[in-house]
Write a structure and sequence with these properties.
Layout (H helix, E strand, L loop, with lengths): L1 E3 L2 E3 L12 E7 L6 H11 L8 H12 L4 H5 L2 H6 L4 H17 L2 E8 L11 H21 L5 E9 L5 H10 L5 E7 L11 H9 L5 E4 L5 H9 L5 E4 L7 E5 L5 E5 L1 H8 L3 E4 L1 H6 L15 H6 L4 E3 L4 H4 L3 H12 L3 H14 L4 H16 L2
Parallel strand pairs: 3-4, 4-5, 5-6, 7-8, 8-11, 11-12
Antiparallel strand pairs: 1-2, 9-10
Length: 373
C-alpha cells in the first residue's frame, strides 16, 4: 500500500480508496471531533484540555486510547463530551463530522451518540437531538456545495450501565421521521448484558424500530447472544468475538477444517452484519485472543467463511483514522483488491437502516463508483 496526497491507493490497480463511494455504519459522533475544535470549544466554556495545540492533543488521544482495554479507552470521551454540552457545540461537531466523512468519500453514514451524556448544561433530550440534526443538515448542505453528496442518519444510543434505556428508546422513536434511523446501546460491555434493557428493546420491537447493539467487543458470546435474543439486534456493533464460536482445525499444510457453533452459524446464515472497526479493535483488546497485530484480526477468517462483514472507524479521533485508512490497512494486511473493498461497501449498504428501495439505490451508487475506479 502506498500513500500520497490524493489518498490511499491499492497495490496493483492503483485505485484511490478515498475517491471510492463508501458506507460508514459505526461512527461515534463524540469520537470524531477535530482536535482544534476540541480546543476551541473547551476555551469557550472554560474547560481545561490535556494539551494546548491540536497536534499534541491528537497525540494525547492516540496514546490514551491505545491501552488494550475498553474501559480505559472510554475515559478519553470525558474530554470530548465535555465540549458537547451546548447547542452551538453540538451543531458544530455534527456539521464538521459530516464534512469530514464526505471528504473521505463516504456517501452514506450513521452517526451514533448518547443524548443522555449531553445534558450537563441544561439541554433537554429533544433539544440535543435537534441540535445534532441541525448540524448534520448544515454539513450535508455544505458538502453538497463542494460537490460531495452524502446522506447521514442518527443512531440514538443509551448507555448500557445506566437506567434510561426506555426513555432514550422513546426519544429515538419520537425523532424517527426527523433524522433518527436506529437505536443502540454502548459503554462498558462486560457485566452489562443487553438483557438489562429488555423493556426498552420490547418497546422498540413494538414500534418496528431498527436496533444495533454493541456486542462481542469487550465481552464474548453471551453478550452477542443477549444482543440477538433480548435486543433483537439486526447488526452487531463490532461483533468480532463471534469468532470465539468458530473452531479451526489444521490437520496438515493443505487441509483445514472449520466448524461453526450454533450462535456463529445463526449470525452467518441470517446475514447479521458485523460492524468491525479494525484499528479500534486492536486498541481496546477486542482481538487479544488472536494476537496484537492487524494480520491477527479474525476479520479475514469471518469474511472467507461468508459472514456479513463491514468496515468502520468506530472513533476517528481516538484511532487517528478514517474509513479509507481502515480499508487500506485491511487491504495491506490481507491482500484485498478492489472487488473485496466493493463487497464490504455493498454489505454495509444492505445493512443500512434505510428502506429497501433506498438501499438498492445506495448499492447502485457504490457499484457505479467502483466501476469507474
Amino acid at each position: 500500500m502506498n500513500t500520497d496526497t490524493a489518498g490511499y491507493r491499492l497495490e496493483g490497480d492503483g485505485a484511490d480508496i478515498r475517491s471510492l463511494p463508501k458506507v460508514s455504519l459505526h461512527d461515534h459522533l463524540d469520537g470524531g471531533l477535530r482536535p482544534q475544535t476540541v480546543i476551541e470549544l473547551a476555551d469557550e466554556i472554560g474547560f481545561e484540555v490535556p494539551a494546548a495545540d491540536a497536534a499534541s492533543l491528537a497525540d494525547w488521544f492516540a496514546e490514551r486510547s491505545d491501552s488494550g482495554e475498553l474501559v480505559e479507552y472510554l475515559k478519553t470521551f470525558d474530554v470530548t463530551t465535555a465540549v458537547m454540552q451546548t447547542r452551538a457545540g453540538l451543531e458544530r461537531v455534527a456539521r464538521e463530522s459530516v464534512l469530514d466523512l464526505a471528504a473521505d468519500g463516504v456517501v452514506y453514514g450513521e452517526l451514533r451518540w448518547a443524548p443522555e451524556q449531553h445534558q450537563v448544561r441544561g439541554l433537554g433530550l429533544d433539544e440535543v437531538v435537534e441540535a445534532v440534526q441541525a448540524g448534520i443538515d448544515a454539513g450535508i448542505d455544505e458538502a453538497a456545495s463542494q460537490g460531495r453528496g452524502i446522506r447521514i442518519g442518527q443512531l440514538v444510543t443509551a448507555m448500557r450501565h445506566a437506567d434510561r434505556a426506555l426513555e432514550i428508546a422513546e426519544l429515538a422513536v419520537r425523532h424517527r421521521d426527523r433524522g433518527v434511523v436506529g437505536f443502540d446501546i454502548a459503554g462498558a460491555e462486560a457485566g452489562f448484558l443487553p438483557s438489562r434493557h429488555r423493556t426498552a428493546f420490547d418497546y422498540l420491537a413494538s414500534q418496528f424500530f431498527p436496533v444495533t447493539v454493541h456486542a462481542g467487543e469487550a465481552d464474548g458470546l453471551e453478550s452477542i447472544r443477549s444482543a440477538l435474543l433480548d435486543g433483537r439486534a439486526l447488526r452487531l456493533g463490532h461483533g468480532v468475538r463471534i469468532a470465539e464460536d468458530v473452531t479451526v482445525e489444521r490437520e496438515d499444510d493443505e487441509n483445514t477444517y472449520v466448524t461453526l457453533g450454533l450462535l456463529s452459524q445463526w449470525v452467518r446464515d441470517r446475514g447479521i452484519a458485523l460492524e468491525t472497526s479494525p484499528s479500534s479493535n486492536l486498541q481496546t483488546g477486542a482481538i487479544a485472543a488472536w494476537g496484537d497485530d492487524l494480520v491477527d484480526h479474525p476479520f479475514d477468517l469471518l469474511y472467507q467463511l461468508g459472514f456479513n462483514v463491514t468496515v468502520n472507524t468506530d472513533n476517528r479521533l481516538q484511532s487517528g483514522t478514517s474509513l479509507s485508512r481502515e480499508l487500506a490497512l485491511l487491504a495491506d494486511a490481507f491482500g484485498y483488491d478492489l472487488d473485496d473493498l466493493e463487497t464490504f461497501q455493498l454489505n454495509a449498504a444492505e445493512a443500512a437502516f434505510l428502506p429497501v428501495e433506498e438501499r438498492e439505490e445506495l448499492a447502485e451508487l457504490i457499484e457505479d463508483g467502483f466501476d469507474a475506479a
